[in-house]
Amino acid sequence: MNDKDIIQLYFNRDQRALSATAKKYGKYCTSIAKNILGNNEDAEECVNDTYLSTWNSIPPTIPTILSAFLGKITRNLAFNKYKHNHVMKRGSGEIAVVLDELAECVSGLDDVEQEIDRRELVATINSFLETLPPKKRNIFICRYWYSDSVSSIARRYEMTESNVSVTLNRLLSKLKEYLSERGYVL
Amino acid sequence: MKKEDLFDTLGDINNQYIKEAHMNNKRKNNFAWVKWGSIAACFALLVLCIPMVTHLSSVEDDNIPTVESLPIENNNKIENLQNNLEESASTQESENAEVEGTQETETPDETVTENIATDVQETTVQDVPADSKGEYNEAVNSGDLTKDTSEFFGGSYTDANGKFVIVLTEDTPANRTAICKELGRNESNTTFVKGTYTLAYLTELQTKISNAMVNKELPFVVSSALRETTNNIVIGATTTNEAELEKLYALDTVGGAIKVEFSTGAGTEELLLPLPKVE
């Protein structure tokens, strides 16, 4: 079933939309959640919440790219759950390492003095990503959006792990420079 | 800003980039499956063929009558026949010994078996659209190429017959050689077709459309896909209004690279009217 048909089922309030979504994107969502949460039980729970959230969002929302739409919901839910688990001191996905890497780009302070317009920041990050060659952009997104492990990225792109790490490190430095040139001190 | 906030913010990046990274993962996985599947299939063929050929050869040997077992009047004819068979077997043996230069004591049966097995293996490998390294990277990004080749490279794909196809905007022998060299392909095993647009141009156009979609400048566009097989961008649109579509066509600076297909969109028109909200 193609994405358009699945979305139509949501609009028709047909519950087959959920099974169709699970069949086509279940593994995709689970892998995103598992990368962040690090265990199957929490990931499964998170994916079920994704289906519910999607059911409540469509309509009125019309996803332009269903996979990215579901992925974003899963990522948000999984990250919220991660933060909750982190407070409770349980769970250990790839996310802890990913966050440590991202820490290089930020000050770590609360945004009390500088109120950053999130939408503008996203637009700037998008324009940064546009400047990258497709392969590097995909590696960046695999790591910082999908939270894929360095070893799996290395396997996928036929690179050594150290090569991937160096590439990611340079990309983060570039991002930091790109943002600071445009007035963002994060 | 805290690292968690940056991670959160990164979650809202362009959907197209998220999809591209995901598709790339899938494609690589699919190719890995094809690669290992092909190797397994070749191995299975070898395993099946070797005993089969050996068995057939031994059956044929058993059926060859000996001179002693036949009536005397036929002895001359049979003797001639046997001599011919021995001669042809020894000729085959000497030919193989010449080629391999080592196995002088090899029996004809073994040689035939090995030749057939080798033929089967070679034929199977030739049918698979792999490059010289045995990889299946038919997806080539315009950014991966040098400036020279990206100026005439229109994309690549594997056709229904499993042949690797390269699209060139300028189909000249020099360009064919240059692109094959860069992609690590054998020119003789590659099909070349003429295209109008370079992959670099189509990729740039696709990015422009994606950005416009994200910025809600093209609310009537429900899908956008770069098709290397047809060398264009195919758009799913919920409108046929030329004035609206003009905004889309304006992104195509060369012209003619966008093909619009009417789509009813995600919902019906009534559903779209009250809240045409795009994610």
What can you tell me about this protein's structure?
The complex is a heterodimer of chains A (186) and B (279). Chain A is built from nine helices and no strands. Chain A is mainly α. Chain A folds into two domains: 3-87, Orthogonal Bundle (Rna Polymerase Sigma Factor, Chain: A); 95-181, PhyR, sigma-like (SL) domain (Butyryl-CoA Dehydrogenase, subunit A, domain 3). Chain A is globular and about 50 Å long. The model of chain A has no long low-confidence stretch (mean pLDDT 86). By secondary structure, chain B is α/β, with parallel strands linked by helices. Chain B folds into three domains: 39-127, no CATH class; 137-195, no CATH class; 200-272, GMP Synthetase, Chain A, domain 3 (2-Layer Sandwich), CATH 3.30.300.50. Chain B contains nine helices and six strands, in the order αααααββαβαββαβα. Chain B has helices at residues 3-10, 15-63, 75-100, 108-127, 147-150, 173-183, 199-214, 242-249, 269-272; strands at 153-158, 164-168, 190-194, 221-227, 232-237, 258-262. Chains A and B meet through helix 1, helix 4, helix 5, helix 6 and helix 7 of A and helix 1, helix 2, helix 7 and strand 4 of B.
- If you average the pLDDT of chain A, what whole number results? 86
Helical residue percent of chain B? 40-55%
CATH class of the largest domain in chain A: Mainly Alpha
Count every beta strand of chain B, where a strand is a DSSP E run of 2 or more residues: 6
CATH topology of the largest domain in chain A: Butyryl-CoA Dehydrogenase, subunit A, domain 3
Number of strands of chain A: 0
Strand arrangement in the largest pleated sheet of chain B:
1-2-3
- Based on CA atoms alone, the radius of gyration of chain B comes out at 31 Å
Give the topology string of chain B: H per helix, E per strand: HHHHHEEHEHEEHEH
Per DSSP, what share of the residues of chain B sits in E-state strands of 2 or more residues? 5-15%
Please state the CA-atom Rg of chain A, rounded to the nearest Å. Answer: 18 Å
Q: How many helix segments of chain A?
A: 9
CATH architecture of the largest domain in chain A: Up-down Bundle
